Amino acid sequence: MGKILLVARYTFLEMVRHKVLYAFVFFAFFILGLGVAITQMTIGEPLDIISDIGLGTIEIFSTIIAIFMGITIIQKEISLRTLHPLLARPLTRPQYILGKFFGMLLLTLVGIFFMTIILWVMLYFYGGPERMTVYLPSLYTIFLQTALVVSVAVLCSSFVEPAVGAMFTISFYLIGATSYNLVYLINKQSSDLLKNIVNFLRYILPDFSNFNIKDNLVYGRGLENISLSFATLYAAAGILIVLAVAVIAFNKKELN
Q1: Do 150 and 67 contact (CB within 8 A), yes or no?
Q2: pLDDT value of residue 13
Q3: If DSSP codes are grouped into helix, strand and coil, which group holds residue 126?
Q4: Is 164 helix (H, G, I), strand (E, B) or coil?
């Protein structure tokens, strides 16, 4: 476990040196500033608008950073040949993969924390800082969803080039974000055969509706029909499966 944490620490510090955390802060300020501007131009509760945009921003930019940093996290070290001396030490390939994953996870956690602080400041400015406590479950599920995306990005980085990895990881995210609505629409209008096929695929394809509780919390519906325990188990199971595939793929990869 110590070697995994060492790789995780190295990975996190490497991302910090590339000023990735600045991207979280910059884009968070930019989008939340846009939220303030929108509150001046639309009719509605400013706190609801700020909260909706703020939580959406945290989700979107956490995902963007997870994808575009994660897909290069291993391939970059392969191309620069800095991976070879690492694996020449008493460090196994599974330990390396897990270390990279946990390093990216730490980066995600710190980034979400920074953006949460900015959102809290905005809510405080508009007179509703206590809402941040209500939104903690949503921040937790955003972290779970991003962790699942990170695992897919690490998988892609372990055996394909960054461009292909980006396409695959983005597709994974888009399928996860839209699969529930797509199933709902197809079940409304399609034949029984197509409905059965789609319902079968729903158990295979990612479904991020398990993490989508933002609107419920922003608009006062609470956690109705939502289980944080199920969301946790869903994310954990997905991450374990994806990382197992990543370890298998990386173990078979020949490093030139």
Answers
A1: no
A2: 84
A3: coil
A4: helix
Residue 161: which region, alpha, beta or left (left: phi > 0; alpha: psi -120 to 50)?
beta
pTM value is 0.86
Q: Are 77 and 83 in contact (CB under 8 A)?
A: yes
Domain ranges of the chain: 2-251
> How far, CA to CA in Å, does 213 sit from each of 28, 140, 141, 148?
20, 10, 8, 17
Distance CA 126, CA 238 (A): 38
The per-residue pLDDT for 5 is: 86
Ranges of the chain with pLDDT below 50: none
Residue with tokens 């846009």: 34
- How is residue 205 annotated by DSSP? S
Opening angle at CA 238, ends 222 and 16, nearest 5: 85
C-alpha span between 31 and 56 (Å, rounded): 10
pLDDT in tens, 74-123: 777 777 666 666 666 677 888 888 999 999 999 899 888 888 888 888 88
Cα–Cα distance, 99 to 11 (Å, whole number): 8
